[in-house]
Amino acid sequence: GRYSVDSAVGLSVAIAIGMDGFRDFLGGFHAVDQHFLNEEPAQNVPLLMGLLNVWYVNFLGAHSHAVLPYAQYLHRFAAYLQQLTMESNGKSVRWDGTPVTSETGEIFWGEPGTNGQHAFYQLIHQGTRLIPADFIAVANPARPLKDGEEDVHALFLANFFAQTAALAFGKTEEEVRAEGTAEDIVSARVFAGNRPTTSIMAPSLTPSVVGQLIALYEHITFVQGIVWGIDSFDQWGVELGKKLALEIAPAVNGDAEALKKQDASTQSLVSWYLSQRS
Q1: pLDDT digit string (tens) for 241-262?
Q2: CA 4, CA 22: separation in Å to the nearest integer?
Q3: β partners of residue 107
Q4: What's the maximum distance between 2 C-alpha atoms anywhere in the chain?
Q5: Is this prediction's pTM over 0.85?
Q6: Looking at 35, 65, 87, 91, which residue is catalytic?
Q7: Active-site pick, 149, 174, 242, 260
């Protein structure tokens, strides 16, 4: 499950990184747990980030949230967070059974910065949708990154710092004109700025840091669930799909009577599948 990697379910992780690494991993979780439990609200990072996410969703109309690691080993981190966040807070009913009274949840997505810069950053910078973004970087890469004498990691992080600055402050018409830009394309080169970002940095990507990152987003998710009054620890939408899959499975295996019990759309899809299956 989405909250299980630091339990016995994480045995495969322990085997992969060794018990010393796994203890370090658990230590990262514990450090953030203690921070969330004991730190004053004004310095409580998961609390503040959770409240910011509620602000983005319910007051600024954000529907999605980008997670953009500038560390290649975190290239699947956004996908990991999709289950944590959307399975937890993708709810329309409160914990007491009443309908929610506000928007809940947001679509989490992202890619490493090197890929994203040449794909979807355009939308984040100049699109009509507000997309809060979390940028994640480490000061020291897992392996030296140099091209001859040039420190490639420093160039890499220059992009990290530049993107967050550009999103925050943008570029005015005056600045664009001062570059000698033709008047008919000045408006296309203006960046409004004021796009919200959070920068998360660590000395290096150790098991402890990975544990801290996961725990951080677990607590952020919990904070949002509390504010919205929903139960972040069930997933009945997932259960329904599993139940229906068991009911449809006989039809997929050629049971004509089971196929007749399905809705027209499902019957058509299953019938096409059976006609094509060799």
Answers
A1: 899 999 999 999 999 999 999 9
A2: 14
A3: 64
A4: 74
A5: yes
A6: 87
A7: 242
